[in-house]
Write a sequence for this structure.
């Protein structure tokens, strides 16, 4: 399975003026990859994820998954947002089960998957709880389990830990890295946090702004087995700094172009 974007562009119309949010995006994500996309605000990170999820259509170019064109949402792509968007009247177990209700699988397989992903995300003891009884991190665990229980080809994460405190965020980073190792699910994650991208990803794609386009596609040459201690390793610190400099450089260029238009 390969997710491919070829010459993808996206335009929006604002007050009668056409704005190009993304332009000429070429990107390949192979089965089992963990790719993180970073960039300054306005670089089109979330727009990119929306296109891959099939929530919007590209103005130009083609998005394919295993050779088939992406024309709308589907169970082959799971999506998790910054805020989990759980159903408040459903229990944890029922929220996780929601996607399975739309699939043709038997009752025993449904129960097996729910149990496995509740355990994998550390939610087994909370299965009968309602969302209002959960912490922010626990809600995101439910959202991740709900996306994964359908066993999609690709898991799409749109800044899923951006609203969490630092400690909970790091706990969730360790969790998603472990889940990726256990399930071998292909992951494409958008984040504004370069440190997070370097810790989680096997590759970091940097988007430039105005319009959004790929400025760099960087291989993260760190051990596959990672814990939080790797963030203090010299090679980690060096790579994080170089990517932060690149993001900053692209943002300065965007600001310079914006001032020139005035």
């Amino acid at each position: 399975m390969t997710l491919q974007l070829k010459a993808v562009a996206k335009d929006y119309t604002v007050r009668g003026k056409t704005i190009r949010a993304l332009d000429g995006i070429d990107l390949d994500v192979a089965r089992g990859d963990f790719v993180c996309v970073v960039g300054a605000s306005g670089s089109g990170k979330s727009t990119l994820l929306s296109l891959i999820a099939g929530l919007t259509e590209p103005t130009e170019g083609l998005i394919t998954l295993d050779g088939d064109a992406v024309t709308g949402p589907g169970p082959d792509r799971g999506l998790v947002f910054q805020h989990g968007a759980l159903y408040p009247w459903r229990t944890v177990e029922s929220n996780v089960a929601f996607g399975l209700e739309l699939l043709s699988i038997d009752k025993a397989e449904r129960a097996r998957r729910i149990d496995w992903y509740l355990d994998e995300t550390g939610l087994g003891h909370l299965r009968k709880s309602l969302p209002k009884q959960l912490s922010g991190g626990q809600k995101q665990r439910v959202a991740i389990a709900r996306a994964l229980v359908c066993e999609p080809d690709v898991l799409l994460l749109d800044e899923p830990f951006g609203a969490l405190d630092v400690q909970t965020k790091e706990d969730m980073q360790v969790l998603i890295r472990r889940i990726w190792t256990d399930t071998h699910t292909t992951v494409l994650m958008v984040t504004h946090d370069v440190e997070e991208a370097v810790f989680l990803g096997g590759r970091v794609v940097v988007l430039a702004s105005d319009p959004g386009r790929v400025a760099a596609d960087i291989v993260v040459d760190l051990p596959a087995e990672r814990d939080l201690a790797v963030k203090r390793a010299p090679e980690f610190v060096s790579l994080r700094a170089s990517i932060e400099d690149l993001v900053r450089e692209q943002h300065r260029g965007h600001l310079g172009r914006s001032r020139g238009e005035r």
Observations:
- Strands lie at 2-14, 17-30, 34-39, 60-65, 68-69, 77-80, 154-158, 186-190, 203-208, 213-219.
- The two ends are 46 Å apart (CA to CA).
- The chain has two domains: 2-76+153-261, 86-151.
- Residues 2-76+153-261 form a domain with the Rossmann fold fold (CATH 3.40.50.300).
